[in-house]
User: Which sequence fits this backbone?
């Protein structure tokens, strides 16, 4: 009997899906921290807690607020914690990806100047959320597609 490649652990004891969840979590943590760094975040002095009035822009592209940065930090922490198990890593990537796809739709249907745009989100955020959603769901499914199947 052989163990499927996608569930075979590396020397550190992590599967590919766990490594992917860990990497995504680290990136979210980094983005959350960078959102609080003046210079990397332009118009830092205009950052509000939660509102479309925040003019702070991470890398001069992505509209951010304190709440937006906190969400990134929490997503990062969740990724680190859930990467401890294969099922947790898969859930983090698939469910997290679905959340980002919902955020993409939210960004499409909620006007940018609306009080409902409290995170806040701009067009660059919307496109990134679409790509993140597709990528996370894809990783979660692709890296666990052979899970449970044993080849004779």
Assistant:
């Amino acid at each position: 009997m052989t163990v499927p490649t996608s569930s075979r652990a590396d020397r550190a004891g992590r599967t590919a899906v766990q490594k992917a969840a860990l990497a995504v979590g680290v990136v979210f943590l980094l983005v959350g921290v960078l959102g609080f760094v003046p210079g990397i975040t332009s118009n830092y002095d205009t950052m509000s807690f939660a509102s479309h009035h925040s003019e702070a822009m991470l890398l001069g592209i992505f509209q951010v607020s304190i709440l937006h940065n906190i969400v990134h930090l929490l997503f990062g922490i969740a990724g680190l914690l859930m990467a401890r198990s294969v099922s947790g890593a898969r859930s983090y990537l698939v469910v997290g990806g679905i959340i980002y796809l919902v955020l993409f739709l939210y960004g499409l249907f909620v006007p940018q100047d609306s009080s409902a745009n409290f995170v806040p989100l701009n067009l660059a955020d919307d496109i990134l959320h679409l790509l993140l959603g597709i990528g996370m769901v894809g990783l979660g499914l692709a890296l666990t597609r052979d899970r449970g199947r044993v080849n004779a």
